[in-house]
C-alpha cells in the first residue's frame, strides 16, 4: 500500500513538476527573446541615428570645404573675405581659444618657450639638429623679489653660472638666447655622435667621445684607395662650444702614399663642412660606386 | 542564435561611433581653417560680444568664460613674445595622417619678428615608440620678403632645404634684433649730427654716409651688414668705404685712404660699434661745436 502511494505521488508530482519547469522555462525563454528583440530594436534605432549624425557631419564638412575653396579663390583674386556663414559667435570664440592655445604650443618649436609661475617663469629650451627635435632643458627662474635660478636641468658642463652672471640680471632674453646657443650646439654634437654609432662596424669603428661636452671625437673608418683597403683614423675637434660642426678634422693613416694623402685632405674638409653622418654617408657611397665600377672592370677583363 | 543576430548591429555601431569621432575631429579642423581664412570673423565675434546683449544667461556665462580664456592666452603669448622676440598672428594646425604610433600635422603660421614678416607652411611628424616620443619637421616652406637682404634670403633657403625650423626662429630673432640696433644707431647719429650724417636710403638701410660740411666732395660710407653663417650665427660686419674724388686720392701720399678700412676695423675692436662711429665722425667731419651740440 505504502509502495503504491509513493509511486502514485511520484508519478503525479513529478509530472506536475515537469510541467511547472516547462512552463517556467518557456516563460524565461520568452522573456529573454523579448529582451533580445528589444535590444535589437534599440540597436537598429541607434544605427539609424548614428548614420544620420554621420551624414550630417559629412554634409557640414563638405559645406565648409566648399567655403574654404571659395575663400582660397577670393584670396587669390585678392578680395577681402566676408564672414563664414553658419558659424555662431560662440563657436567663433571657441575657435579663437583653440588658435591661441595652438600658438602657445607652437612656441615649443621655436626653441624658447615657457610658462609664468607665481614667482617668475619656468622656461623650456628645446633643441634640434636640422629637422629632428632633440632634448629639452628646463629652468625655474624667480623674478621676484630678486632674479635667480631656483632649479634647472642644464647639464653641469654647460657654463650656466658664467652665462647667468653676465646676462641674467640685465637681460633675460639675452641670457636665454646665449644659453640656447650652448645647449643647442651641445645637443647637435651629441646627436651626430649617436648617428655615428649606428654605422655598421665594418665601416666605422672605435667611435669615442673625448669629453661629456662632445667637443672631441675620435673614430676609425675604412676606405678603398686604388682597390686597396685602408683604415683611416679621424679626430674631430669642435673649437667653438656654440658650434655643432668641427673646427678641425685631423685624419691620419699609416700609409704615406700620395693618393691616400689626397683622400685624407678631401675628407678633412668634408668633415668640417657637413654633419658627421652626412659626410660618412657620402664617403661610403663614393666607395661603393668605386667598388662597383672596379668590379665591372674586372668582369670585362675576365671575358 | 539571437545573440549572433545582434552582432552585425553592434559591429556597425562601433564602426559608426569611430567614424563619427573622426568626422567630428575633421569638422573642427575645417571649421578652424575656414575661420583662419576669414580672420575678420574673430574680430567680428569679439566686437559683437562687447557691444550687444546676449539673451541667454547660460550662454553669457559660457562666453564670459571663453573671453577670460582668450585674455589668459593673450597675456601668456605676450609674455612669450617678449622672451623669444617672435610674435604669431595667425596659426592653423591640421592633421594630415594619424595612426597608433605616428601622426603627421600640417601647420600654417603667420607672424612677425620686429619689422620682419614671415609666413610658414610646414609639416611635423610625431612618432611614439615604447620608450620615447620624437618630433621632427619633414617639410618646410618659408615665405618672406627679403629681396633687399641677400644674407637673409640665402639663410632662408638653406634652412628650408635642411628643414631646420628651430634655427630659423632663433636666427631670425637675433637677426631682427641686430637690424633694430642698426636702425636705432643710424637714426641716433643722424639726430645728433644732422649735417654730417646722411641716410640716403633711410635708417633701415645697410649704410650711412659721413661728410664734412666744409668739404662736401669727400664722403665716407659706413656699410653695416648683418651676416648669418651656415650654422645660423648672426654676426654684424662693418666696413668703411671712402668715396674720395681721384684728384684728392692723387694728393694722398701717405695712403690714408687706402688704410682707412683696416684702421676702422681696428677702431671697432677697441671701441665697439657705437664708440667707433662716434670717433670717426668727430675726427673726419671736424665738426664745430655748434653742430655737435645740436
Automatic annotation (TrEMBL), chain B:
InterPro entries: CENP-P. GO terms for cellular component: chromosome, centromeric region; nucleus. Keywords: Coiled coil. It holds the Pfam family CENP-P. Signal peptide: none annotated. It comes from the Eukaryota. Residues 6-40 form a coiled coil. GO terms for biological process: CENP-A containing chromatin assembly. PANTHER family: CENTROMERE PROTEIN P (PTHR28577). This is Centromere protein P.
